[in-house]
């Protein structure tokens, strides 16, 4: 790319100037500007065709009368009338460029940004229509699949039926809403076992993202469980030290990918350091062993502390969705 601009610079600096590459660039600029015009830009389209009339520009080149700065100024003004307000400052900066090569490079860079802006605007404008069409399309596809193979959504049916049963058990008075059932069903996906092959068919495309969210929830539960066990054993005096909880949480989060044994050792070490700085004494050896053992036991899915924290986290997520 740099070689192209260097070649253009050499052509424009030659005597007489060689505008062969510049002509190609002007044609590309004209095409790009035309692609940014809307159907209502009738006058602007006509004006663009007249100013960037390539046959007329060829005649000006042959007569040595081509004024690149004049054409660049027109292009920049046209871009300014078409671009989003957020680009106004960058458009103004183009007016201060004097070298033709720098002008061309700046114009092409800005046209690229404007094309992206136009695409984003088009998508944003069409989003409601696209969403409506997507729903209708997916319904039609699901119907085709079900007509062809009635058992193709068995996993989804079982997944939703489980959520319905749990929701009916928790709501004794009044009807069960579809949204509450769906929320509960999605909560199940956040703790779905990787060994369970009966993943709902309707959310298979999102499984990677949902598994990632589930992993974040499990990490959060383990973080909170370690903190709760540590608080129960070391007491409030150390817990109230400025910055202690934040520093401890960072250590836990960084080490949870490894064995909980290392986490336990590090927690005990930081608690002892904090106690020594405040009370000039460390935890009794018996309490240290209890704390280590409780943290090491958190690897078990049926650990009472982990179950308690997990239910609390999931309950808060469920309330948030509701």
UniProtKB/TrEMBL annotation:
UniProt organism field: Periophthalmus magnuspinnatus
CC annotations in GO: acrosomal vesicle; sperm flagellum
Pfam family name, one: Tcp11
Cross-referenced PANTHER family: T-COMPLEX PROTEIN 11 HOMOLOG (PTHR12832:SF14), TESTIS-SPECIFIC PROTEIN PBS13 T-COMPLEX 11 (PTHR12832)
UniProt similarity note: Belongs to the TCP11 family.
GO biological process: protein kinase A signaling; regulation of sperm capacitation
Database matches in InterPro entries: Tcp11 (IPR008862)
Top-level taxon in the UniProt lineage: Eukaryota
Protein name: T-complex 11, testis-specific-like 1
